[in-house]
User: What shape does this take?
Amino acid sequence: MISSFQDVSWRRLRKIVRDLSQAQKGNRENLINSFYKSFKSFGASLPVLIGVVLLLGLFRVNVSPQIISSIFSGEFFRDVITGSLIGSISAGSAITSYIIGAELLREGVSLFAVTAFLVAWVTVGIIQFPAEAAILGKKFAFRRNLVSFILAILVSLATVALMMMIR
Amino acid sequence: MKNKIEKQKGKRRWNNLYFLGLVIILYLFLFFFSFENAHKSLKASGNILIKLIPVFFLVIFLTGLLNYFLKPKAISKYIGKDSGVRGWILSVLAGIISHGPIYAWYPLLKELRKQGMRQSLVAVFLYNRAIKIPFLPVLIYYFGLAFAVILLSFTIIASLIEGKIIDMLEN
Assistant: This one.
């Protein structure tokens, strides 16, 4: 294992870093452009974020905890799988999943289920599946999503178990 | 291919607005139904949003920095170049630092596959896209630093396991 690192000399590493970076001296235009781009891409996802926040406000006031507990029963494994399933069929910015996840926690859903939801949100993409299958191959897309779904549950179990051990 | 991506981009933008529109219509209904509840809901939403605004600015700032320091095309040059330990490490790192919507990456990955990048490394790359550096402030804000660190560590481990499983299934 060590030997495979030896040929990464400092000079080569520096070259890679320089290659990856467009931050050259006096490149002010690039800096402004980069922030403009990030502002624009955030702006593009802002309608959804505001929509989600408005929906959460609606939920907080009008939806009773009973409705949430009818989806998340409190039964350990069922909840974890439900969390992973809901995360799998949802798509969108990861920030959205964090906001929704925190809200679910507030409503008393277990951290296991919420973590599975967060992980599945970003690793399993049922909505993107057609695009992924068309470009990277059906077999690959199917296997990748299936394995990711199972791993979302395992990652959630490992993460929360370790959290509990620390506390 | 490019046309397809543009189309998808446009579609996504409209989907974004549809969703917000739907929520606003829901609110309008509620206003007629029960003014008080609608008012309370708006207030609750406002409270959530106000707390989020500083975090949003941090996200924009971090994304800007990432845009400035990294060129996606350059990243792709280094993933899947070799399939030894270094190939795995590079795929993990590339997945973590890559940004932008996922569908923008599919064609690039297809190109790399044609050039001999292994399926397992594509899977590792895609899995590590779960780690979003610019969004870390939001994750930490809601779930705490310890949770974020542990979750991200396990995410990296899971990505390697997924790569291995894809490898095994392939053969």
